[in-house]
């Protein structure tokens, strides 16, 4: 369904609800840029723009690694038979675990990337991870990127690989988490975010970045209002106007 911003709602907006591990409240795209609340849809988005049998590179910017492997055998046993499935089929795909009474969605925010790497990792040319070190370390050869050096070094790193890039961004990367009763706060300046995304914009325009996925992760960014405010800063250098319905 097209909208006034020149994009398309792949999952129509369902409200500012809790996202958690599996709930997808929206998925919106404009060309090869995707915006979502829950990162679990990212794997499907990538496969719309890359041939995973050909060389590609991955740049992951996120608080978390998103590479859980605790039930990998079961997940791999329940993969779709055809990766050409639609987004609704992808999100609805379920798996039954012996120790959990009800089936759960196969793809969650913490395992979509580890599943992708397990299935298509042999074609990966390079992997860069800019994270806060949260979660299971990826089971692949990768470079760890420094938080403060990311904007100044991103252009150099993206030029290091001749393969097309998947650029995977979670807005929670920009947020600081204090004590349990202290809400997350954005710790990056507008200048930091702008410089980072201007570089992303250049490489999107040149075709070096084949697909950009952005998760706003409201629970890890102090709520929808803070996530949406940072999303505006992220999209501005890309020349993309987008706002969730009120």
UniProtKB/TrEMBL annotation:
Domain of life of the native organism: Bacteria
Classification via InterPro entries: UPF0489 (IPR024131)
Pfam families (alphabetical): UPF0489
UniProt protein name: Uncharacterized protein
Species this protein is from: Bradyrhizobium iriomotense
């Amino acid at each position: 369904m097209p909208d006034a911003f020149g994009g398309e709602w792949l999952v129509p907006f369902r409200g500012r609800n809790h996202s958690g591990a599996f709930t997808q409240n929206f998925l919106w795209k404009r060309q090869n840029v995707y915006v979502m609340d829950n990162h679990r849809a990212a794997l499907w988005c990538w496969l719309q723009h890359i041939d995973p049998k050909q060389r590609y590179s991955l740049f992951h910017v996120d608080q978390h690694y998103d590479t859980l492997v605790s039930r990998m055998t079961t997940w791999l046993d329940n993969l779709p038979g055809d990766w050409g499935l639609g987004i609704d089929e992808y999100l609805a795909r379920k798996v039954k675990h012996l120790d959990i009474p009800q089936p759960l969605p196969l793809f969650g925010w913490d395992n979509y990337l580890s599943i992708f790497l397990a299935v298509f990792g042999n074609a990966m040319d390079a992997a860069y991870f800019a994270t806060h070190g949260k979660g299971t370390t990826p089971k692949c050869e990768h470079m760890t990127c420094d938080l403060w050096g990311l904007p100044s070094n991103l252009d150099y790193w993206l030029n290091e690989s001749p393969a097309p890039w998947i650029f995977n961004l979670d807005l929670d990367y920009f947020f600081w988490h204090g004590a349990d009763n202290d809400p997350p706060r954005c710790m990056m300046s507008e200048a930091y975010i702008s410089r980072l995304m201007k570089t992303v914009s250049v490489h999107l325009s040149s075709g070096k970045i084949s697909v950009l996925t952005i998760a706003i992760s409201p629970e890890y960014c102090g709520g929808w209002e803070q996530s949406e405010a940072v999303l505006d800063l992220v999209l501005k250098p890309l020349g993309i106007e987008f706002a969730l319905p009120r």
